[in-house]
Amino acid sequence: MKGTVFAVALNHQSQLSHWLKAFQQAPYQTPPKTPVWFIKPRNTRINSGDTILHPVGEEVQSGATLALVISKNARKVSSENALDFIAGFALANEVSLPEETFYRPAIKAKCRDSFCPIGEMIKTTLSAPIEIITQVNGKEVDRWSTKDLIRNACELVAELSDFATLKEGDVILLGTPHQRVTIKPGDEVVIQAEGFPSLKNTVIAAGGQ
Hints:
Elements: E1 5-9, H1 13-23, E2 36-40, E3 45-47, E4 51-54, E5 60-62, E6 64-70, E7 86-93, H2 107-110, E8 116-118, E9 131-136, E10 139-145, H3 153-161, E11 171-173, E12 181-183, E13 188-192, E14 199-205
Parallel strand pairs: 1-11, 3-8, 4-14
Antiparallel strand pairs: 1-2, 5-12, 6-7, 6-11, 9-10, 9-13, 13-14
C-alpha cells in the first residue's frame, strides 16, 4: 500500500451528532452534505510493529478504524459497482490530537510522524458489520461496530471518486467514533477485529525522551 491515504471525518453517527449544533452556527451554517476528507501524508504511515511517536506536551488519541484499499483506478464509480475497485481491507489507527474544528484542515492534529499505522490487508467484501476493538496494555478500552458508519465502504468509494480519481494502492480510512482513546508513551496499542491480523504499535515519546 503505497498510494495516498484519504481519511474520512464525520462518518460515524456519534461524531456527527456531537458536532451537529456547532455545524448550525458560523462559520459552517449547515452540516456537510458530502464526505469531509483529508489526506494523511507519507510521513504518517507506519506498519504493525512500528512505534507511534508521542509529541511532548500534547494529548494524543487513538482512532481505530478500517482501511479500504483501491485495486484499480476509479473515477465516478457507482456504489453498486464499487466492490470491483476494492482490493481488500486492513485495520488502521487514525492517530490524532483532539479535533477542535472541521472548517480548515487540521494539519497539526492529523499529519504528524507515525500518526497512521496500517495493518496487513485481507481480501474481504465486508458484507456484514464487524466490531473493531482497541486494547491498551492488554485491556480492552474501546469497541465499536461498522454498522454505525453513516456511509459504508462502497458509498465512500462512489462519493470520493465522483470528484477525485482514486488510483491503485490508494487507501480510504472509513472513519472513527467521536469518543477516542487517549494514549501515552509506554503504551502498547492493539487494534483487533474478527478475521483480521492484529495491528500492534508501541507508543514512545518523540525524540526518545
